[in-house]
Structure formats: C-alpha cells, structure tokens
Amino acid sequence: MQQRNSGNQRPSGTDGSDFSYRMVVDNRYTKVAKGKSTLSKVLVIQAVVVLLGVFDILFTLLNNKPLETLAAVSSSITFISMIIGELGRKTSRVSFLKLYMAASSIGIIGLFTSVIQSNIQLEKDKFDILKIAFVSIGLFLQIFSLTKTSSLIGNMSPPKRAS
Fold this sequence. Notes:
Low-confidence stretches: none
Order of helices and strands: HHHH
Oligomer: single chain
Radius of gyration: 23 Å
C-alpha cells in the first residue's frame, strides 16, 4: 500500500466502499476528552482566584490585622482540592474527582462564610470590595466546576447495560 498523500486524494487500494468497516470513536470518549480539557481550564482559573485570596490573607498579616482563620483554612482546603482534582483529571479517577467536588465545595462555602462573618466596611477599605469580588467569582466557578465535573464523571463511568 502506498503512503497517504497530502490533500484530498484517496489512498490506493480502496475505492471508498470500506467506510462502514472503519472504526468510530464512541461519543462518550470525545465528551470525556472535552470535559477533561474544560476542567483543566477551570482548575487554572480557580488556582488564580485562590492565589489572589492568599495574597489578601498575606496583606492582612502585613497590616498587623488579626488572621481570619476560617478564610486561611478554607483557602488551604480549596487549594488541596484543586491538586486532587488535577490528579483525578489526569489519571481519570472518578474517586479523586468526587473528592475534589466535595472538598472544593467545602472550601468555597468556608470562604463565603468568612466574608459574611467579617465586618466589611466598604467605605473604608477597598480590599474588602476585592475580597467580595474574588469570593463571588470563586462561587460562580465552583458551580460551573461542579456541573462540568459531574458531567465528566457520568461520561467516564461505563454505560449501564440493559437487563
């Protein structure tokens, strides 16, 4: 058989009637590939948002203000959950992805709670506005991440056989 030529030429040895015998990739495998790609992008954006939250915690410490322990612990949980999510995405482990979903949800809820509990005075401190913005973006990303990850898990699981 000859090598395929570039362009629209058909390789020699076939008349095009072998189309029905060609392998076709199952639709759920393409959905898994797209889901992994999307989850990778979401994890990068979440990492940037959490990193900006860590900078806020560092600025709080540099200004000799008391540390918000709930915000620090929640940021740590969210960061660790993103590492678990990346491992689950790369190795296609459903258990890691489920752990990522649970841990990142706990982390974001903790961050949201810390913002609600803090005495935010919007007129005096412009960093408080940024903190609210970052937590709001993080909450939106978490909802988007949960939908994409649950869709990815559903496509990774083998299809149910009819009895």
